[in-house]
Amino acid sequence: MDDERLHQDTEQELLTESELADSFDDEGQAESQEEEADSLKQELKTKEQKALKKLKAIKENVSEEDSTPVGAQTLRRILGGDILSASLVRRQVWLFILILLFVVFYVAFRYQCQQDTIKIAEMERTLQDAKYKALSSQSTLTERCRESRVLEALRRQNDSLLKVSSHPPYIIEVKK
């Protein structure tokens, strides 16, 4: 394809040169211009041959197994933001938005979970403090309700109505 285009370009240049040579009426000038045109043709042919050789060399060096593509992504291009204008990114924009939403939900739920864990730990400390207060209150009440303490309190108040029984308690049996 490139060979054909290069060949056509050289033919067009040759035609324009020959037209220039025909436009001059003077034979002396025409001959000198024909000589110039011939030398230009020779130069164009040599340039064309060199270009074809270079093209063939490039075609031989390039293979399907080339590991680095022409537009390889480099760190400089990525950091420069060139990757964001790539068609791959533009086609996958909805996927990136979905991933972003999942990340936001993950962070939000993790934060909420940590807040709930802190609240549960605080409530457990409050419950343990309440249990300790109830246990100490119960032991104080048990201490004050003992028979010996009650009798001692009655003696201090000089209450004569209540006295310790000298007889054991009676057991009353009820038949069903």
What is the CA-atom radius of gyration, in angstroms?
54 Å
Summarize the helix and strand pattern as letters.
Answer: HHHHHH
Number of domains: 2
Beta-strand fraction estimate: under 5%
Helix content class: over 70%
* Poorly predicted parts: none
Number of strands: 0
Structural class: mainly alpha
The end-to-end span amounts to 118 Å
Overall mean pLDDT score? 80
Largest sheet at a glance?
Answer: none
Give the CA-based shape. rod-shaped
Give a verbal description of the structure.
The protein is mainly α and 176 residues long. The chain has two domains: 2-62; 82-156. Helix content is 73%, strand content 0%. The protein has helices at 2-23, 27-61, 75-79, 87-91, 93-144, 147-156. Helix 1 (2-23) runs antiparallel to helix 2. The radius of gyration is 54 Å and the shape is rod-shaped. It starts with a helix and ends in a 20-residue tail after the last helix. The model has no long low-confidence stretch (mean pLDDT 80).
